[in-house]
Design goal:
The chain is an alpha/beta fold and about 140 residues long. It is built from six helices and four strands; from the N terminus they run βαβαααβααβ. The protein has a four-stranded parallel β-sheet with strand order 1-4-3-2.
């Protein structure tokens, strides 16, 4: 199998991947015990759309605060509410977010990175949370 970011010694928390490699990565992640989730950039062109799509696609429990702090907290705690210490989130068509609102795209990527840090800290190193932007 091709080398991918899951097979590297310390894979990045947030990575970019060409579309032709996404299927193999998803399959390898599932085979490795990861829960795999997908987000669709075309459904996240505004902040309200992004917040709604995140909550629905990722199964956020309860009353989601719909702000960046809540995004970071809920993403960082996904292992807890999904019962899996290995989570991979693939973002399809991130160019749609970037084209609609470059700042929104940047804020999403920053929030993803912070959530990964939180999940590692909260899980005392036992949790792996990774994001791949498929572009």
């Amino acid at each position: 199998m091709e080398e991918n970011f899951l097979n590297t010694p310390k894979p990045p928390d947030v990575a970019d991947l060409p579309p032709e490699q996404a299927g193999a990565l998803s399959a390898a992640a599932r085979a490795g015990g990861f829960a795999v989730f997908y987000l669709e950039g075309a459904l996240m062109r505004t902040k309200p759309e992004l917040m709604t799509h995140l909550a629905q696609a990722l199964g956020f429990p309860g009353d989601f605060g719909r702000n960046w702090d809540a995004v970071i907290d809920y993403l960082g705690d996904m292992a807890t509410f999904h019962g899996n210490n290995k989570i991979l989130i693939l973002v399809r068509n991130p160019a749609a977010i970037l084209e609609a609102d470059p700042e929104l795209c940047s804020d999403l990527r920053k929030s993803c990175a912070l959530a990964c840090e939180n999940s590692r800290e909260w899980g005392r190193g036992a949790v792996t949370l990774k994001f791949v932007f498929i572009a």
